[in-house]
Amino acid sequence: MPALIRIEATADPRVEPYRAVRERDLVGRQGLFVAEGEVVLRMLLAQHRHAPVSLLLAEKRVSKLASLLEGLPDAVPVYVASQAVMDEVAGFPIHRGVLALARRAEPLDAGELLAGLAPPALALGLIGIGNHDNMGGLLRNAAAFGAAAVVLDSGSCDPLYRKAIRVSVGAAVTTSFARLSPGEDMVDLFRAQGFEPLALCPNGETPLSELPRTDRAAVIVGSEGPGLPDAVLARCRRVSIPMARGWDSLNVGVAAALALHHLKFVARC
Fold it and tell me: Model pTM?
């Protein structure tokens, strides 16, 4: 297990990357990201794409995490501080007492990611998802219901933003995702890789319960309110989720979860 490095002063330069966490969330970390909480840390250390850089732990959490820390490379420093010092460094109360800094893996190419999926394959496409809570929920749903790839348009928010990672319960660091360049067409990309694009919308002609399973299916969702652009809807099979009278929409994460679950476990060929 790496040696534990005691941090006594909030001004210690060794924990500078953890200072004012929320403010740095907004300006970016030059290829790094912060993971928060024990569950997320376990997910981070179990995967091999994003490399851990360092850990900052509240002293009360060290004994419980001892077995997990044993698997860390010696080169990854583990900083330990009192809860008061940790809170002051971070700029707000870190009730979970666990922070980790990690280096982002090289971005994946969306076409190569999709091409490498053997059928049957399920993918999730995200267009205009700007809320980090929704992004985290969508990634969690993708992992839970077997979507092997998530493709984001250029306008969607960062899946490795700290809050998105936390809401995803770590799925953001284990799920394979790729971001499109501005102007790159998601529907064309899915079709080129043999995926049937399925657009979720209130006025879809195919009720979800009647949607058959295909060898390569891509569920596409848009931001709450505006939904998917007309240009996307016009080139996809439009799928609706029947609801009680007076309602025509769901939270985007809930809608995606229903569609992914149906395609993974319910739909027949």
Answer: 0.95
